[in-house]
Target: NADPH:quinone oxidoreductase
Amino acid sequence: MKAFLIDRYGKHSGRIGDVPAPEVADHDVLVRVHAASVNLLDSKIRKGEFKLILPYSFPLALGHDVAGVVMRVGSHVQHFKPGDEVYARAPDGHIGTFAEQIAVNENALALKPSNASMEEAAALPLVALTAWQVLVETARLKKGQKVFIQAGSGGVGTLAIQLAKHLGAFVATTTSTHNVPWVKALGADVVIDYKQQDFSSVLQDYDVVLNSLGADELEKSLKILKPGGQLISISGPPTPQFAQAQGFSWPLRLIMGLLSSGIRRKARRKGVSYAFVFMRASGPQLREITTLVEAGNLKPVIDRSFPFDATADALGYVEQSRSKGKVVIKIHPGVADE
Model:
């Protein structure tokens, strides 16, 4: 079968090549991939930014998000059958959705929302699970609380705004000048044009910040939080708690502790907490997300779609950080499954 592969780490590495069909373990579901979506995580893995915590071997098929049709199931699979339309964020260590087929552990899989196309479903898993794990699982966001979500026009931002509003929160976000009306239409209560204003001088007394940007924005976020507030970052730096939960070696735990010591110390002085969230695959949480999509509370946002043979172009487009929502790769669009 065909897959988009990298043979080494590097910004411009990648090719479409032939690989063996996936092996299907007892708890695996073999999915014929109709669509996949591109995340910044794919680019960061291609460049080797996560090689310490996600050691992959080459050649490596990239891709984390998938929507498709079940072809075959492992002997112990109970909840899926051939012909089911499904979607997932492939688990770490078993990625490779930029391919014609992928075997996914059933615990990471869910039935596709009935009112979403394959492309729309592929745009959801990683960003929707990230928003869920930050706002619902970690922050335990409550009705009436104030949350600041950075980069409201990005993949995570577009879903996080919708989820926060569904939870009853007051939502502020940032975006560029021409995207301000568009992001307001997603439901944000306050939209700050970052080219015109500094969010840290405009916002105050927030309960939660979802940080997805760099060190400068991370430190500025401390200024807008009320005592007892939560600064939750998906872009780092990682914490010792994260390293321990992942079962990393003692030296790696020490390194991560050092990387985040500064922001954790400043957070304590401010009377707020700091947490790092590296989203994980979860079929049960995807089922919750499916319910929200089918009820109209969450809507996938797609900027552009690329054909499979232009996967490298899709990665390059995402790396420009200008997309409104998600970028999708069409792998078997409209093709009946065998």
